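Reopening this ticket.

The earlier resolution said the output was attached, but the attachment link was broken on my side. Pasting everything inline this time so it's all in one place.
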Amino acid sequence: MSEFGNCRHCAAPLTLEFADLGATPVSNDYLDDSQVKGGETFYPLRAFVCQTCRLVQLQDFVASEDMFRDDYAYFSSFSNTWLAHAEDYATRMTDRFNLGADAKVVEIASNDGYLLQYFKGVGIPVLGIEPCKSVADAAITDKDVPTEVLFFGVETAKRLATEGHSADLMPANNVLAHVPDINDFVGGFRELLKLEGVATFEFPHLLQQITHNQFDTIYHEHFSYLSLLAVERILKVNGMRVFDTENLTTHGGSLRVFACRVDASYAETETLAATRAAEADFGLDDDKVYSDFADQVRQTKHSLLSLLMDLKGKGKRIVGYGAPAKGNTLLNFCGIGRDILDFTVDRSPHKQDRYLPGTRLPIHAPEAIFEAKPDYVLILPWNLKDEIKDQMAGISDWGGQFVVPIPEAKVL
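Inline output:
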């Protein structure tokens, strides 16, 4: 094993650094009143790229079962933008693949039923697979979406197939980055898909992450950072292939990959060829684009701190909006705490009245902003800035303005 470990896909030694973000707590480990008086564990947050398969990945420090626990606080249904995205996906996939009452949709990492509710609503049988009991319970109780609480892999897939859950469609949104054993995870899709079944993997696109300095999407819950180049290599080893892609605006620029078993009949699209070419032209199969990213990270940090310190020097009051995992990476890496932000807010009641890990900023309901009347609101989930600006448009009544940190720090 190399000094920094070996690739979780192909086992090649990891030597080329992609980003070093110091040490942070686990980004979704929000603190309650009793915990905020005690200590926290900080883990190194350092990413490398495999020079063999080009999978960008973290050093292993935290086990997945320690991060995706029963009290996991991320609930997908609290973003209107994400719900609209999910409904659009359900409509389009139903039409494209002629799904009906005789089909089966099995979503991996189904969260609180945010997506499967739209398939179920038109009479298509569904099953959710979700390792976190808190969000799975919400899917079952609030949306009547059948959900099994477990981690997905080859053995799980084989068992589900024998129980009659072989799938026509298997969505997997923003989960491929979260799995430590990526080969076992992908191999499970091959086992559970019907012969002509389709899996869709949706993930923040590494090309966009590098282009737009999105270093804050690096956190311990994300074991991997994905390109089409790496994903195709992983799928091929596990008996699957890509036949189409789609560029998305979600999460600052995502890629949706359409995959099937190697023996399925789907023909490759021109869009797939164009995505391959775009990655090749950008240099994703060369070392330089990865080693240069570290400089971009430092420059983004410095520009954000410079802006915020200038505002504080002028006596301005600043608060945050949102308590996303990416925000915790940003705040901890940049050293932004209560000396700069008074508090942050979040729509999710599961985060309200708790504290951000590391910085220990209190999390309030959004109404707290209208009570405090700050001069500036730092939008931590910058990918949702348009939705948040609409929700919080009333801050203009007292001259309040928004600040975004990514891709560059600026006042909107």
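Reporter confirms the inline version is readable. Confidence is low (pLDDT under 50) at residues 63-70. The first helix runs from residue 64 to 67.
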